[in-house]
Amino acid sequence: MVNQLNIQSIQHLEIILKISERCNINCDYCYVFNKGNPAANNSPARLSDRNINDLAEFLHTACREYKIGTLQIDFHGGEPLLMKKENFAKMCERLLTGRYSKTNIRFALQTNGTLIDEEWISLFEKYSVNASISIDGPKHINDRHRLDTKGRSTYEATVRGLRILQHAHKQGRIPSAPGVLCVANAQANGAEIYRHFVDELKVYGFDFLVPDDCYHDTNIDPVGISRFLNEALDEWFKDSNPNIFVRLFQTHLAHLLGTKHQGILGHSPSATGAYAFTVGSDGFIRVDDTLRATSDRIFNPIGHVSEISLTDALNSPQFQEYASVGQALPHECNGCIWENVCAGGRIMNRFSPETRFDRKSVYCYSMRSFLSRAAAHLLNMGIKEERIMTAIGR
Predict the structure, then answer these.
(1) Residue 269 has pLDDT above 50, yes or no
(2) CATH number for 223
(3) In this protein, which residues make up the domain named Radical SAM core (predicted)?
């Protein structure tokens, strides 16, 4: 459990802000629209000015309550670029003119890239927005799951948006090179996806996401996901290029080496000093956004940002349970050699309607295989076995 009395400073506070709860494409695996929870469709299509003002006041109060190192606001959806540009600019202005004391405020945005144009680049430049693109690989793989609402390819439009972002970064107009988020695909070749990102798209910072599946989903293929991750991991080690950052790989390798790292919110037991909440277009605050796919009570609204404080959110039953679940191993995981590294896997992947979060991940095999492969690579590099065993607590 999180003892609120012991929290005086927060290294990293992240707000996943649903500025648009509609989308112009229809990814069949989408946890927002295609996992059975109607919350997004029942919410306002866009974040209102009133809810933006209420959020700004909520954040001002949070920065008075705590010493917050970095406040990161992730503009999210649906597809966030469905918000009108003039409204996006007003939102950024309002959020940036806040009373945040010495807190560093950072804007990020996750987009499918299809709507990016020069006007959006100008806005990203003006407000220092770090944009990342969702794409699953080359056209024949990306378009298996990421089609538009009329069943047409999204690949070309997404790559066009990525190229515009890359060009803007080379010009020094936006703060960081665009990264890529890719959902691991059990029917695809991980090496092919990795090479497409690095060699063809010239992307050197990306992440592979384990699918947002749990025990009420069908067609789960942990063997295929493990093969995908291991194929991509092999290519990454083969490149041995320190300029290529794959978050999933480097976070877990840091664990295996016993080095300090922040970890991944919602995935890593060592993401200490970091907290994340979701704020919907309706202005209500909730925990980890992916948990909406469970339709479980843990994703029930904590309260409206105009009516509660960050202290209230941290002390809420939903967040307290979320923190407790994240710190407790499912009983099936006790004694596993990887328990201190994996920590039971993503909370989303552990859910079943009967036992809720007391199950090992549906992708347990995938992560055990991946971690074994990663450890083998380290041994081949000359890392002492004793160091790895000490790091994993064995």
Answers:
(1) no
(2) 3.20.20.70
(3) 9-268
